[in-house]
Write a structure and sequence with these properties.
homodimer, 338 residues, mainly alpha, Cytochrome Bc1 Complex, Chain D, domain 2, 2 domains, two-stranded antiparallel sheet, disordered C terminus
């Protein structure tokens, strides 16, 4: 509407004088829907509002074509940011192509998605919203539906001068997602010198390093900062026995380079205790399975049950505390933030 | 290096076993430069580090080709985020094409740049870094220079798993810029019912509304949320007398549509008392001049000196407090944050 008005302005100054000087102020001042100049709030308060808006949008089913699926459908915030399904379920019961990665600590991954096709959390959001097997919607549709709800209009306007737009939806959701950090795991306390690991976990950490797991699962997210082939030391996909899907090709889908076939972003192991099943295909249902498969296909090593138990004990020390933002909003505003 | 390693991995598993399992852990564990798994910090502490990094980058001359110009060269943080020049000066004394808009409260503008060509603060940063009359650099060059400095390497690594990248430089700077909010102006206190405006400013606000200034200068940023033609009610550029530049064409440079000639993003009036000279061409050196020109060319109205004084008195109530982030870092770490 503003654009139309502007074109009119450029074309017909005298008529427009009436529109701009007399009508528009009446519109903006009338009805109380739009305050012409709201006060400027301190940045902390703006950010807090943005985080609350982002959480509402994260839990908003209107983002999907038939209003049945929200981000939290596949990334359960009351759990560990996953849905515990081998492959996620989208609108109309569509079975997705891949195991949903956790949104917890996703801010520390160098790329998003298993094949790393999004560089930022914002860019990642384009995927599920428009994927026909996930939300099956479009940004036009999402914006239209959100704009139809006055409380969303108001909440966006308080933060963003241009109100409900795809960029602003993505900015709010990504800002919320950046809060989903799970600090204070037993391993973090060990690293910070606050407490020791128990004997089995300590042995597991030693094994994790000496076996070579740490070559890929390193950095603050214990993974999430490099790509790696699934099946460095053996043909994982052949042994799996089920047909190869496009999702199995990994980064090849992005680069179309032969060398990128079966190459994936190394997943974070933070909270891995809580995010079964494992791997991009959800093929490992327990941590023990996952460790055994990784040892065989990534390291070319057969490890004993006792060694597996030790690594699993170490992995369990990577379980952090729930993100503070979720605790706070539960305390103050029930399950769904307002 | 990781990419090369990955390709090698895919190609030669047995050789690679040695590299991955034996060499890489040694590299990552050796020398203390890279900690294989640093502890996860709470999100507030990560964000605080990101803001500090963003400020350092904002003040970093290495972003320019000859290491002479930083963001803060044109957006002085000790003032009001401007350089007080009609047109900014870039590398080698190059005179820019346009008056530098303030970075303060820029987060509340619906688009960035006078012609609105950037949708986000992140996207905006591509402009000055690569503009030959501003920083004249390239992202490759910026990344190379920042990577050559160990403290930057370390500071990026603490926050971003992929270290120094164009995306991460932009994310850090934009995160810092989002802190540059100036709350608690006299006008905000008036809007919040905390205090009254003095008589002249009150009259000025009435005039600001009744003259029609508020048709465009509205919203939380008192502007910054729509486009408008410079010269709705008269030919500003003809009367100005100096040749029309490409910058004068405004949004036309972006859309190439005839109707977008001379169309600009309406600037915010927050802190306008402190941001002279005014307009995209810096042609008005005082607030009084600016108000007189606006009344004539945007509203087709000749207003008296007394009316101008009142509007100016109102505009001066829009001066907010310095952003808290600048106060804090000055107190704790001197002029330049570490």
């Amino acid at each position: 509407m503003l654009v139309k008005l502007r074109v009119a302005l450029a074309a017909k100054p005298p008529v427009l004088y009436v529109v701009v000087v007399l009508l528009l102020p009446c519109l903006t001042l009338g009805a109380g829907a739009i305050v012409p100049i709201p006060p400027l709030k301190p940045v902390d308060s703006i950010t807090a509002e943005k985080i609350r808006l982002g959480r509402s949008l994260f839990e908003e089913r209107l983002l999907s074509r038939d209003n049945s699926v929200s981000c939290s459908s596949c990334h359960d915030l009351s759990g560990a940011g996953v849905d515990h399904k081998p492959r996620s379920i989208g609108i109309n019961g569509a079975v997705g192509d891949i195991n949903a990665p956790t949104v917890f600590n996703a801010t520390f991954n160098f790329r998003q998605f298993w094949n790393g096709r999004a560089k930022t959390l914002e860019a990642q959001i384009d995927g599920p919203v428009q994927n026909p097997k996930e939300m099956g919607s479009s940004w036009n549709e999402v914006v239209r539906k959100l704009k139809a709800i006055q409380t969303y209009q108001d909440r966006f306007r308080k933060i963003y001068p241009d109100g409900v737009t795809p960029e602003n939806v993505k900015d709010a959701i990504a800002t919320f997602e950046r809060q989903l950090v799970t600090p204070d795991s037993r391993f973090d306390e060990f690293l910070s010198g606050k407490s020791a690991l128990d004997e089995l976990a300590k042995k597991g950490y030693e094994n994790f390093k000496s076996f070579g797991c740490i070559s890929c699962h390193q950095g603050v997210n214990v993974g999430g900062n490099m790509y790696q082939t699934m099946g460095v030391m053996g043909n994982y996909f052949k042994d799996r026995g089920t047909p190869i899907t496009e999702a199995d090709l990994g980064r090849f889908a992005v680069t179309k380079r032969e060398a990128d076939k079966y190459v994936f972003r190394v997943p974070s192991l933070r909270n891995v205790e809580l995010t079964a099943p494992y791997f991009h295909d959800g093929s490992a249902s327990t941590l023990e399975d996952a460790v055994r498969v990784m040892a065989k296909y990534q390291l070319g090593r057969q490890i004993s049950d006792r060694e597996i138990d030790s690594v699993v004990a170490f992995l369990k020390t990577l379980t952090g505390k729930a993100p503070a933002v979720l605790e706070n909003s539960r305390t103050t505003a029930g399950a769904k933030a307002q």
